[in-house]
Design a protein that fits this description.
Strand content: 15-25%
Low-confidence stretches: none
Number of strands: 14
Oligomer: single chain
Number of helices: 10
Distance between the termini: 54 Å
Order of helices and strands: EHEHHHEEEEHEEHEHEEEEEHHH
Largest sheet: 14 strands, mixed
Radius of gyration: 19 Å
Shape: globular
Length: 291
Amino acid sequence: MKVATAAYNLDWLDSWAQYEDKLEAWVSGAAGKGAELLVFPEYGAMELSTLDGVVAASDLERSIRAVSERMEDVQHIHARLAKTYNTYILGASAPVLAGAGRPVNRAVLYAPTGAFDHQDKQIMTRFEREIWDIAPGGPLKIFDTALGKIGVLICYDSEFPLLGRALSEADLILAPSCTEALSGYWRVRIGAMARALENQCVTVMASLVGANNWSEAVDMNTGTGGIFGPPDKGFPQTGVLSEGILNQPGWTYAQVNLTEIADVRADGNVLNRAHWAEQNPRVDSVTLCSL
């Protein structure tokens, strides 16, 4: 399959039609290159807050509600585009008010059939928990698709190996991200590459890019798209299948072969995924030695 992952820049939107046109241009562009799976970044939906004006877009709480209230319409657009262009799409994540509690950070995976399901972020960053008050969402999921089994670790989640291990049956793990600084981008990238190494799978990182002085939440964003595998048989020696240019909006593409994932898991130069359980008795017997 061909995978496309986005370095996505936010725009100030003056109309809903402008958003629809923008999204269709992105999707049609990737589909026109033959991409069967498209990955948008974390909090890419925050541009929808601009439709409620400057005051709403610049206020943390009001921006959450402005975006959340439009997510049903967002789902209709993505479902239509996935069907029209015969692609799977991981839509940009958004803060979603799913009940009486605090909002969760939710990304939705759309199938060409019109079906869709969501993945919520598991572990909040300090900004999300201390300032924005975003709550952890529902459980991790593995989506069984025509392209293989797909998991999603939203940004910070990719930095936690036990979350990745819970998705060890996934062939691909998608890591949509939103990082302010270069250091943040590299934390998520290193996490995504580590999950590819441990699970002997392919990880796909999407990034938000650019400056948005109208928002306190997504005011500065650094990153690029990247697609990673284990540095082992059938994969590049660096583990990097493809990477974009830092902070340059656009798609990054790579070919992903499920057979190569199965082969490296069965007969790689190392077998990290199969040997994972050998850690358990050893981490329980750490001895403190004074020198």
